[in-house]
Amino acid sequence: MDTPRPDLAASRNYVLSSLPPGEAALLLPHLTRVELPHRFTFYRSGEPITHVHFIERGCASVITLTPEGAAVEVGTIGNEGLVGTPILLASDSAPSNCEMQVPGDGWRMPAGALAGAMGQSDALRTRLLRFAQAHFNQVAQSAACNRLHSLEERCARWLLMTRDRTGESFGLTHEYLAIMLGVRRAGVTVALGTLQQAGLIRATRGNIAIVDPEGLEEASCGCYRVVRAEFDRLVRAPG
Questions:
Q1: Residue 25: which residues within 8 A CB-CB, separation 6 or more?
Q2: Coil/strand/helix, residue 116
Q3: Which residues of the chain does CATH 2.60.120.10 include?
Q4: How far apart are CA 187 and CA 184, in angstroms?
Q5: Beta strands in 78-175 (DSSP E)
Q6: Between helices 151-166 and 174-181, what is the axis angle to 10°?
């Protein structure tokens, strides 16, 4: 018996759900449903990107490594787009790692098949390049944020961006958040403690719950609103 093809119009992924039937038909034969556990590696620095992934649930991190071995997150990707942005720009690798930070699931597709589909559809190519622009805007804003804003503000921004992609509660350890923010674990513990004492979050072992999203946004720097507005304009806006 043939396996039913997915209904992309009902997808939680913004790119997939926005595709007209003709563009969706270009992708359907190549999509495979996959589980995406915590620390699942999509690609590593300098290595060929063989597949792209459209995330339905969960959140991925793009991590830049220094020659000295330090690591810091420069971008996050959830159900607003796809993992594998270099493929959209006719490249097959990146000087970064990408791994799943909050587990979930999604769709995998061979990179070559996506490149071929983009060549057949202006609408698909436009949607994907608009996502790429929004993602690069996020990376640029993160660079400024990491340099100019306090750890507490940056922590609040990161929690809000993850909430937007996963929901009000998600698994997270202090150790992993420290890697994401490029700081020591002790600093993350203090920042989370401050946000919890203010009644904005509830932090338990291995889990974070957002209690007061509006208050957490006030505690965050303005970078969160800038990044979200750009995703709304470029990706989530109708058409």
A1: none
A2: helix
A3: 8-145+231-236
A4: 5
A5: 97-110, 169-171
A6: 110
CA 62 to chain centre: 8
Residue ranges matching CATH 1.10.10.10 in the chain: 150-220
* The model's pTM: 0.89
Residue with tokens 């959140």: 59
140-150 burial, b if ≥16 CB within 10 A, otherwise e?
Answer: ebbeebbeebe
Q: Structurally, what CATH architecture does the domain formed by 150-220 represent?
A: Orthogonal Bundle (1.10)
3-state secondary structure of 77: strand
User: What's the rounded mean pLDDT across residues 210-238?
Assistant: 90
* Three-state secondary-structure class, residue 67: coil
Question: For residue 153, which of 187, 185, 179 has the smallest C-alpha distance?
Answer: 187
Instruction: State residue 182's pLDDT score.
Output: 78
pLDDT digits (tens, 9 = 90+) for 116-140: 999 999 989 999 999 999 999 999 9
> Which H or E run includes 224?
helix 223-231
Closest by CA position to 109, among listed 6, 219, 235: 6
Amino acid at 26: L
Q: CB 103: neighbour CB atoms within 10 A?
A: 17
The amino acid that residue 179 corresponds to is I
Let me know: does 201 contact 157? Beta carbons within 8 Å. no
Backbone angles phi, psi at 71, to 5 degrees: -135, 145
189: alpha, beta or left? (left if phi > 0; alpha if psi -120 to 50)? alpha
* Cα atoms in the 13 Å half-sphere on the side-chain side of 26: 19
For the domain covering 8-145+231-236, report its CATH number: 2.60.120.10
Q: Following DSSP, what letter does each residue of 73-102 receive, concatenated?
A: EEEEE-TTS-B-HHHHTT-S--SSEEEEEE
